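Hi F.,

I've been meaning to write this up properly since the lab meeting, where we talked about keeping a consistent format for the predictions we share between groups. The idea is simple: the sequence comes first, exactly as it goes in, then the structure tokens exactly as they come out, then a line or two of notes. No screenshots and no reformatting. I'm using this chain as the first example so we have something concrete to point to.
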Amino acid sequence: MSQRHTLQVFEQYQKARLTFVQSVADLATRPQNIETLQNAGVMALLRPLLLDVVPSVQQTAALALGRLANYSDHLAESVVRGDILPQLVYSLAEQNRFYKKAAAFVLRAVAKHSPQLAQSVIDCGALDALVVCLEEFDPSVKEAATWALGYIARHNAELSQHVVDAGSVPLLVLCLQEPEIALKRVAASALSDIAKHSPELAQTVVDAGAIAHLAQMILNPDAQLKRQIFSALSQIAKHSVDLAEMVVEAEIFPAAFACLNDSDEYVKKNCATLIREIVKHTPEV
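Output, unedited:
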């Protein structure tokens, strides 16, 4: 009886930890709970659970942290101050696909708020780990990593260059070619976020062969994908005559003109923006 009783104590403790992280993750989805969770010291309580022996506790703790960090820059800064990021980056290389998705979500949630917080994500070595995730077999891990890289790159040219230097662009172009629509969308968005800052960054995206793969998807029935396609092509074409001509040479017309009558307002808007960015350079184009 005493052995069974002893094991029960451990089982109860495990159940309590899992119940705790599941409850916090659920509470963190509602804005009205955030301040109460923060005042109760939730960050410090979640941190050790990232290294829990039970995988489901680890994953749910990371998900809860991501939801909290996503809510405000103040909470994202708490994640940085709590020295949680290095732990997540280490786990990206070591853990299973469910944890990798959750860890990438936390990195994205921190990086989105400001260039300074995005730099904190870079400083803890996240870029290399995220780029490795782009080579994972599981498309949902690739998608989570692509989201995070895009959120880092979108702030400014310097951060975008770091994302490029980590070797992400060729792998993002490969993600465009995957069958999953959600992955295609986020890859096009990330390439757009990289290309928008300067002609040099746009040229890096072009050199990886992105234009041809983006152009092929102009008539894809998925409206959200088309929005991102036109946005990415616009961010490339806007910089110079040469880049605009490369977009035109990918034979996006007359298919692009048809999208001006698309049922989705954002597709129409982004398509019109692309045409504007092409024709503004010179009468010949």
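Notes:
The chain has 19 helices and no strands.
The first helix runs from residue 2 to 27.

If this format works for you, I'll send the rest the same way.

G.
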